C-alpha cells in the first residue's frame, strides 16, 4: 500500500468476538482525499481508517480506485452505523456512496470483508487512543 501513512491495529467487537484489523490512517485532508486511489491490491486483513476532525455528513466516491471495497461508517463512540459496498470506478463520472447519516470515522476494506467476518451495523470499533480527534 502506501508507506507514508501510519499503521494501527483496531479491534472490532461483534458479540463475544474480537476481530483485529490493521489500518492505514488517513487523518489529513490530503490523505483523506487520496484514500485508496491507485491501490492495486489490499491484503486480506488490512484496510484504511479515515479520521475526520469532527462528525461529517456526506459520501465517498471511488474515482481512480481499482479494487472493490466495503465501507463502514462509524460514530464518535465507535459504533458501526452503516456498511456499504462500493464498486471500482475508472473515469470522471463515478457514483457517490452516501450513507445519509453523520459519522466521525470510516473504515474501508476489501469487498465483503465485513460480511465474511460477520461484522454488522451496531457492532463497535475500539481505536487506539491516539486516533481520537
Note down, in words, how this protein is organized.
The protein has helices at residues 29-34, 113-116, and strands spanning 7-14, 17-26, 46-57, 60-61, 69-74, 80-86, 96-97, 102-110, 124-126. It is mainly beta and 133 residues long. The strands form two sheets. It has a seven-stranded mixed beta sheet.
Report the order of strands and helices.
Answer: EEHEEEEEEHE
Spatial strand order of the main sheet: 6-5-8-3-2-1-9
Number of helices: 2
Shape: globular
Q: Structural class of the secondary structure composition?
A: mainly beta
Radius of gyration: 14 Å
Largest sheet: 7 strands, mixed
Uncertain runs: none
Count every beta strand, where a strand is a DSSP E run of 2 or more residues: 9
Helical content, roughly? Answer: under 10%
Ends distance: 24 Å
Percent range for β-strand residues: 35-45%
Mean pLDDT: 92
Spell out the key features of this protein:
single chain; 133 residues; mainly beta; seven-stranded mixed β-sheet; globular
Question: What's this entry about, in short?
Answer:
This protein is mainly β.
Amino acid at each position: 500500500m502506501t508507506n507514508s501513512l501510519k499503521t494501527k491495529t483496531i479491534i472490532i467487537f461483534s458479540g463475544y468476538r474480537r476481530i483485529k484489523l490493521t489500518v492505514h490512517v488517513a487523518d489529513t485532508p490530503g490523505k483523506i482525499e487520496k484514500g485508496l486511489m491507485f491501490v492495486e491490491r489490499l491484503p486480506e486483513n488490512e484496510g484504511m481508517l479515515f479520521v475526520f476532525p469532527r462528525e461529517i455528513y456526506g459520501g465517498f466516491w471511488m474515482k481512480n480506485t481499482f479494487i472493490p471495497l466495503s465501507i463502514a461508517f462509524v460514530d464518535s463512540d465507535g459504533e458501526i452505523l452503516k456498511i456499504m459496498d462500493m464498486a471500482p470506478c475508472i473515469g470522471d463520472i463515478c457514483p457517490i456512496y452516501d450513507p445519509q447519516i453523520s459519522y466521525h470515522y470510516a473504515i474501508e476494506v476489501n469487498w465483503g470483508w465485513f460480511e465474511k467476518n460477520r461484522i454488522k451495523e451496531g457492532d463497535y470499533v475500539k481505536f487506539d487512543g491516539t486516533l481520537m480527534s
